[in-house]
């Protein structure tokens, strides 16, 4: 909070002028937030800016400062005279009231107004939830009123959604209490960020595309094993109507008064993990450099952004930034007790994790720059160890000190980026025409480093459903732990000779991807014993505490 | 929709100038919606305007045009040279996607932009839901992590909320699926408009008051029968933080470019049924006449507004407008097949319903004007029958043709209002110091016309809890059907010699009222066989259909 107070916010309409975003396409939400009419994207095609994609090494549970790096890099590029714009995801209330307490960058590299961005913002998440939950209600209502479509209530795949950490809602029975309340059946809630409607929201190119994708959501199966889609319930018109404001990307500013899009929020472990494709494209349209963040490391947000979003959106990439910290490197070298303890041995051993992530991004044929997100405890020797290793791989390295210095601390990184002139279409890891198993195997072996992929009986059955609904040629959106390159969170560093077990394969028919689930994945988190929520407060003068 | 297109919206900042609302206290949501900082209310005390309260006779399920009358009256008063401002509730998504398709007035007496007002608006309802559901999650999380407070999961009173008609969520079991998901228990969702957080939201005078009331919510009881409040879970700070934007009333405009507050949305059958007290007070502050609507008829929104809101907010009332239609009067006279059929016999017989509603408002010592909301089918003879009857009671009568004519059609009503100069503090039906049973009996006998009040065993047990939590001196917020003056929807007209059965008494400890439940009351509606939702659509040019 103190960082925000030290700097003066500018009215969003004033900043947007610098980027030549026409004012009549902006809808204000107070003085410092605006939604941009997405149709602007299709109005006139001019030269688009270059795309910088920011990913990271395998993180500790504390996160390694990717968002902070994105924002600092945008500020640095603007300092160097380039128009630059960030595109990041909107934080979920789940982690805000759970452990994290907020997510909008850190130190002098933040987007503001932070309280609004973290709490409800422009109402996009509630809109996504209402769209989701309207469909859920229409399903049970259809069954209640005679079930003309013959929906088998045991085979309903679609779940309700709420942007809240609430483990009690994971597995529930609905429709109890007598015949007036419908038919009892097993059901559950996912956190909104893990829902298919969120994924669709992030992938849609316009209202018609959104409506079409929503209509294609696989609701479940009928008693005679026919797939039932949202469009069979005529749900997609109302769902899209609910989302009609939300689809327009949100603009805010950095502490150095540069623009950032904050739009969409799919998790990267279970969903695709980047901001909306519309916000990315608008960022490219109005900047020289659009800096886009993917969730977690190269094996999750990285792979998914390049294989799914870049392919779907026909995006070229100028450079990939991999964010590392000495804390995480030491952790991957085996240091467990005290992350910040001086331990060069562990640091050196941990570099193999970074090495794999560099190789992963190079596998897509892309130029990589490693950004070491500086902690005040980092020693010169530690920094040199990382720099020497990265440069020995022939890869660019930059120390990033944006937390403490803002854009100034990102200039080394920005300069490394600007040196890269060429933009490349990623060399995708799999072809859409490959079979689901081939696609899964390529990701597991090339990106994770697995030696073998196995399938549970349930997954084999799911793959038959995938064929049944005609999705053999769809995208693959893997779901696994972010805490390891493998599917086992205990395997730190660069695991080798491990096998992957695909437990199930979920179908996101509207989003057009299948979700192979590796290991235990929570689509509805729980709160810790002392949730961050109990530390929140608000006062008569408008001051708030709890978000940091 | 066509009415909106025929008239030109003005920017909300331009209209607010006319009312001398300082621009720096407005937060825009697009060009035509703004939130007003509630603290403006406490900044300087000037002469407040006069309060006109609009209620109605017992409605048919179609509604008799109260909101339409409110808006037309505001436009009419402005035409006559008085600054007038409406204060109405925000519509719930439940009825919008269920049967009604929207609620923002009708014909030439509407508030706009209607699509926004009806769909998500400025995000107040989601905020109320998140505040509600955060508390729910904290309750189950507390039990999961050791249950230090000893909460008896069988005695949790607090329910989750969602702004959706979804009967399947009325009665559910949560926490299934193994020990990682908590402890199974019976639970359920209410529609947001029926939640205690909505009631508290509507009753709070500032942030501190809001926080205090939220902390006072009765969550349930411990194993040793001690009450557990939200503050015991330290929930109120985060809940109030979520509501920090929502608490500021929303301003929109009528089709004749006059201002209207649309804020808060408690149902009147189960909750108190008027817009927020802050929006009512702000409307009074910035107008000569603030026109406020209560839900349903005098026996529900009417009684509750006068006994609860006017008492709590220390409000004087200039006049009460009772809206009637020949359709509803004929219905109460026994006409069932065709409401608009010419049937003077039924009309005359139905006048007894109107008579009782007039008497009800006179029981509070207030001046009454009856507004007959004109339908195009109404004959001169019918209108004369109603007028003669009303005037024979010594009460003012006005034909209101605002649906077809806008403010011009409300001038007769406005003139009748302006003639009333005196403002009166209502003569409350009960004293807070009376016992709960005395209070309930006074409302049932004086307002409903009941001869006897009985209590179920459950209600008797509930009343012991009321004493246990120290609420013998609290307000009473009755819950009953809106379709009859009695608790039996089949008893039309002016029922007499009937008894009332109090089935249960719910405790809204944070809102400081008890809710005696008479007959079957749904706190979570269901969707009809063909819900309005399936008629919604949205197009690339922003045009929407489904709301009318």
Automatic annotation (TrEMBL), chains A, B:
Record carries keyword Iron: no
Enzyme class: ligase
Residues annotated for ATP binding in this entry: 60-67
One BP term from GO: tetrahydrofolate interconversion
Pathway where this protein functions: One-carbon metabolism; tetrahydrofolate interconversion
InterPro entries for the chain: Formate_THF_ligase, Formate_THF_ligase_CS, P-loop_NTPase
CDD domains tied to this protein: FTHFS (cd00477)
Record-given protein name: Formate--tetrahydrofolate ligase
Gene: fhs
């Amino acid at each position: 909070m103190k960082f925000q107070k030290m700097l003066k916010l500018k009215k969003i309409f004033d900043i947007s002028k610098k980027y030549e975003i026409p004012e009549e396409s902006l809808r204000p939400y107070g003085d410092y937030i605006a939604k941009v009419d997405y149709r602007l994207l299709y109005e006139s095609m001019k030269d688009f800016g270059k795309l910088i994609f920011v990913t990271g090494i395998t993180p500790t549970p504390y996160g390694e400062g990717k968002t902070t790096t994105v924002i600092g890099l945008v500020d640095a590029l603007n300092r160097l005279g380039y128009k630059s714009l960030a595109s990041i995801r909107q934080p979920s209330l789940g982690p805000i009231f759970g452990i994290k307490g907020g997510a909008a960058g850190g130190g002098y590299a933040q987007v503001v107004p932070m309280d609004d961005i973290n709490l409800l913002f422009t109402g996009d998440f509630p809109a996504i939830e209402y769209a989701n939950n309207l469909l859920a209600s229409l399903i049970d209502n259809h069954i209640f009123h005679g079930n003309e479509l013959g929906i088998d209530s045991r085979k309903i795949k679609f779940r309700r959604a709420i942007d809240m950490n609430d483990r009690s809602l994971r597995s529930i029975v609905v429709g109890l209490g007598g015949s007036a309340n419908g038919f009892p059946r097993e059901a559950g809630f996912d956190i909104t960020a893990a829902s298919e409607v969120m994924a669709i929201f992030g992938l849609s190119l316009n209202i018609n595309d959104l409506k079409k994708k929503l209509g294609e959501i696989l609701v479940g199966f009928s008693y005679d094993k026919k797939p039932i889609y949202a469009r069979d319930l005529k749900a997609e018109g109302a769902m899209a109507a609910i989302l009609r404001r939300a689809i327009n990307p949100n603009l805010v500013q950095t502490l150095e008064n540069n623009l950032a899009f904050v739009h969409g929020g799919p998790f990267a472990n279970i969903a695709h993990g980047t901001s909306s494709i519309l916000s990315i494209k608008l960022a490219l349209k109005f900047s020289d450099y659009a800096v886009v963040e993917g969730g977690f490391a190269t094996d999750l947000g990285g792979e998914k952004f390049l294989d799914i979003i870049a392919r779907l959106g026909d995006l070229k990439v100028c450079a990939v930034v991999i964010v590392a910290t000495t804390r995480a490197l030491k952790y991957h070298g085996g240091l467990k007790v005290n992350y910040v303890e001086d331990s060069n041995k562990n640091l050196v051993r941990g570099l193999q994790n970074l090495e794999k992530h560099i190789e992963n991004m190079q596998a897509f044929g892309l130029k990589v720059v490693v950004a070491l997100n500086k902690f005040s405890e980092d020693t010169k020797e530690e920094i040199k160890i990382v720099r020497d290793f990265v440069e020995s791989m022939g890869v660019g390295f930059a120390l990033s000190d944006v937390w403490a210095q803002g854009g100034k601390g990102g200039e080394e990184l920005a300069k490394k980026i600007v040196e890269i002139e060429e933009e490349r279409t990623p060399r995708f890891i799999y072809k859409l025409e490959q079979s689901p198993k081939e696609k899964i195997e390529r990701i597991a072996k090339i990106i994770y480093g697995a030696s073998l992929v196995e399938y549970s009986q349930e997954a084999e059955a799911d793959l038959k459903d995938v064929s049944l609904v005609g999705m053999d040629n769809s995208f693959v959106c893997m779901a696994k732990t972010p805490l390891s390159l493998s599917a086992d969170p205990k395997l730190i560093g660069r695991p080798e000779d491990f096998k992957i077990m695909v437990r199930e394969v979920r179908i996101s028919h509207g989003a057009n991807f299948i979700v192979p689930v590796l290991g235990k994945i929570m689509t509805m988190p729980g709160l810790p014993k002392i949730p961050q929520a109990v530390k929140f407060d608000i006062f008569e003068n408008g001051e708030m505490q709890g978000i940091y």
